Structures are given as structure tokens and as C-alpha cells.
Automatic annotation (TrEMBL):
Its EC number is 2.7.13.3. It catalyses: ATP + protein L-histidine = ADP + protein N-phospho-L-histidine. This is histidine kinase. One of its GO terms (biological process) is phosphorelay signal transduction system. It comes from Methylobacterium frigidaeris.
Length: 245
């Protein structure tokens, strides 16, 4: 929306019948939908067919990774759901996320209980978190504090590499793969290892980012955690990496 506009977010309960199942490529049943609509320039049909492809972006070079919608698609499919996009040139675009409805009561203490089961392990170790999403950094920081570790945050690869090239103690790097700042997470980690050859790294990656990581090839001391994941899995991986050789 180069000249401003309106963004609308809508949620709804959806019952998808046999006809809708074929239309949305989903099993029949109850779903929750989250739809985001803008009043921007819209997209031509040939662009709509490409938006979920990894690294496709309409932004200028250096201003986007082209991983946003492909990661949303991967999250939806791994969760048993689907994503659909509707757009008209000159009118705007709507992206709808369909997720299977959960049956049963929510256990508000379940996450805290499972994190407690992992147990505190920190003995002064410091973890560097690099992610351009503040909510993700906050989430990982909370997990680290529960485990007894100290957290340092950076919002892009430039800030992350600056910390890695300093004299600050870093026992583990937790980084998203898709990062702004000129380097992706893998490139930043490799650059950081030039100064810290024994640096341990946990990559947080979306559905479409495995190519950035060399399609599964990782050096010793590196691990991958694929979205979506539960917090106790994140906690266990962090604890395992820091405690390992």
C-alpha cells in the first residue's frame, strides 16, 4: 500500500464440507480461519501462483528474503491446515489461514509445567538470540531465563555478527535462518565461527529454508529446529547443545 490504506483482520469458525474440502484441499471438518485483507495494489494471476515459492518477493533487492508467505504455508500444512490467497489488481489482497479446530479445554499451566520438567541448567552461560521478530526474541528469552541462562538479543545479521566479533562471552547462538541485514542466519553463523571456531548454533527454520542450510548438511555443533515447535522442545535443544561437547 504505497499511499496508505486499510488492513482488516478477521477470524471465524468454518465448517468445511465435501465441496469445500475439494476447493481448499483439506479434509472435511471444523476449522478456524484467520484472514488478513489489505486495500493495496493487488496482484496479477501470474504473481499469485508464485507467492508461496521460497525466495520469491516483489520487494527490491535487499529489502526482503521472500520467505514470509512460504513459511506461513509450511506452518499451515504442518499443522494440518491450508493457506489461500485471493487478489485483484487495483483492489487489494486477502490471505486466509485455515487451521483445524482443537477439541477440548486448554490447559493454561501445561507449557509452564513442561518447561519445569526440562529443569534449570544454567551456570552463567550466555546465549545470543538473533531474529527480526521481537515476539520471537521475547519468547526465546523467557525460555532461557527459565533455564537459568543469560540472553543477548539482536534484530538482524549485522547486529548479531557485531556481538559475535566482540569479546562478549557467547556459549550458544540461536538464530532464525531468514534474516535482514545482508546475511542469512547460516552465513552469519559461519562468519561468527571465523572468530569463534567452537561456536554452537541452533538454527530456527521455516518450511522453505532448508536450502539455505545446505539441505540438511550442518557442521558439528550445529542443529536445526523446524517451525512450528513446542517450547519444551526448544528448551531441550538449548540445554542439550550447551551441555554437549
Amino acid at each position: 500500500m504505497p499511499d496508505g490504506g486499510r488492513i482488516t483482520i478477521e477470524t471465524a469458525n468454518k465448517w468445511i464440507d465435501d465441496a469445500g474440502s475439494r476447493q481448499h484441499d483439506l479434509p472435511p471438518g471444523q476449522y478456524l480461519s484467520v484472514c488478513v485483507t489489505d486495500t493495496g495494489t493487488g496482484m496479477a494471476p501470474d504473481l499469485i501462483g508464485k507467492v508461496f515459492e521460497p525466495f520469491f518477493t516483489t520487494k527490491p533487492t535487499g529489502e526482503g528474503t521472500g520467505l514470509g508467505l512460504s513459511m506461513v504455508y509450511g506452518f499451515a500444512r504442518q499443522s494440518g491446515g491450508q493457506v489461500r490467497i485471493y487478489s485483484e489488481v487495483g483492489e487489494g489482497t486477502t490471505v486466509c489461514l485455515y487451521l483445524p479446530r482443537h477439541y477440548g479445554e486448554a490447559d493454561e499451566d501445561d507449557v509452564a509445567r513442561k518447561l519445569a520438567e526440562v529443569g534449570r541448567a544454567g551456570q552463567g552461560e550466555t546465549v545470543l538470540i538473533v531474529d527480526d521478530e521481537p515476539s520471537v526474541r521475547m519468547l526465546v528469552t523467557e525460555v532461557l531465563e527459565d533455564l537459568g541462562y543469560t540472553a543477548i538479543e539482536a534484530a538482524d545479521s549485522v547486529g548479531g555478527l557485531k556481538v559475535l566479533q566482540s569479546d562478549v562471552r557467547i556459549d550458544l547462538l540461536v538464530t532464525n535462518v531468514g534474516l535482514p541485514g545482508g546475511m542469512n542466519g547460516r552465513q552469519m553463523a559461519d562468519a561468527g565461527r571465523e572468530r569463534r571456531p567452537d561456536l554452537k548454533v541452533l538454527f530456527i527454520t521455516g518450511y522453505a529454508e532448508n536450502a539455505v542450510l545446505g539441505n540438511g548438511y550442518l557442521r558439528p555443533g550445529m542443529q536445526v529446529l523446524t517451525k512450528p515447535f513446542v517450547l519444551e522442545t526448544l528448551a531441550s535443544r538449548i540445554k542439550e547443545l550447551i551441555a554437549g561437547p
